[in-house]
């Protein structure tokens, strides 16, 4: 199993067209942790995730991934979006095989690994279906399988369960916790939902006022107290 990626954000300023969204942020992300990012709408959660993915270059400062500056996307850092980023013309199996193909994994091995991931996310009967034949929850399962099949060292998730109904969302949260137990990947997960944050996180980062308002460790903490602290800062 490959180790999770550690990140260091060092005086990081991000924005668009000259407008600043985050100003001089310093933050360490520990290898293997689940870091959940919360914050009011427009506080820069997705912007931060895009920068970690290498999709948005910093105005100032640096993002280091295991000490090396992030410059562009990499198979080491997989992304999962709210609206599924699946290729509509490829079956479930061929979507999940994609990161393996990009990594140069041989065809038979690719098929075997994709099958294993499809089974782990509970879609064994659906591997030859096209994305349009699946429910929203099933499509998010495929995205999860695809992200993890590439054995990434970090998974960047932008409100992946935001569009799902409450029951499917709870199922997906359980599934995520379950599959993460079998990997050492670092997870950075953006959500609006404080309860989701507390369920999934090792640490919660609250963004606001162009900066990190606070970083809270979740393990062993009192949930009600943590929830109240986060809600106060949002
Ligand atoms: N491509 C873009 N071009 C210009 N401005 C953008 C772009 N994407 C985001 N912004 C602006 O940057 C700010 C932060 O947006 P971002 O999407 O990161 O916030 P967020 O915290 O993820 O919000 P939400 O919770 O509503 O998704 C907002 O003011 C937004 O309008």
UniProtKB/TrEMBL annotation:
Keywords: ATP-binding, Nucleotide-binding, Transport. GO terms for molecular function: ATP binding; ATP hydrolysis activity. SUPFAM superfamilies: P-loop containing nucleoside triphosphate hydrolases. CDD domains: ABC_NrtD_SsuB_transporters (cd03293). Residues 7-234 form the ABC transporter domain. This is NitT/TauT family transport system ATP-binding protein. The lineage of its organism: Bacteria, Bacillati, Actinomycetota, Actinomycetes, Streptosporangiales. Pfam families: ABC_tran. It comes from Nonomuraea jabiensis. InterPro entries: AAA+_ATPase, ABC_transporter-like_ATP-bd, ABC_transporter-like_CS, ABC_transporter_ATP-bind, P-loop_NTPase. The keyword tRNA-binding does not apply. It comes from the Bacteria. The keyword Metal-binding does not apply.
């Amino acid at each position: 199993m490959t180790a999770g990626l550690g990140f260091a954000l060092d005086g990081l300023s991000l924005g668009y067209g000259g407008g600043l969204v985050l100003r001089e942020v310093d933050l360490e992300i520990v290898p293997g942790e689940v870091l959940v990012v919360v914050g009011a709408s427009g506080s820069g959660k997705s912007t931060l995730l895009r920068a970690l993915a290498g999709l948005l270059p910093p105005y100032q400062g640096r993002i280091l991934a295991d000490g090396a500056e992030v410059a562009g996307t990499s198979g080491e850092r997989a992304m999962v979006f709210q609206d599924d980023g699946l290729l509509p013309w490829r079956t479930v199996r061929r979507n999940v095989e994609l990161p393996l193909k990009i990594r140069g994994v041989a065809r038979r091995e690719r098929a075997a690994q994709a099958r294993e991931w499809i089974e782990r996310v509970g879609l064994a009967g659906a591997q030859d279906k096209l994305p349009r034949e699946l429910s929203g929850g099933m499509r998010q399962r495929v995205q999860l399988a695809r992200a993890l099949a590439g054995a990434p060292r970090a998974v960047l998730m932008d409100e992946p369960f935001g569009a799902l109904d409450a029951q499917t969302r709870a199922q997906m949260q359980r599934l995520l916790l379950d599959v993460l137990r079998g990997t050492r990947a670092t997870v950075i997960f953006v959500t609006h939902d404080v309860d989701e944050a507390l369920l999934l996180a090792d640490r919660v980062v609250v963004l606001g006022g162009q900066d990190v308002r606070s970083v809270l460790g979740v393990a062993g903490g009192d949930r009600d107290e943590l929830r109240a602290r986060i809600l106060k800062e949002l």
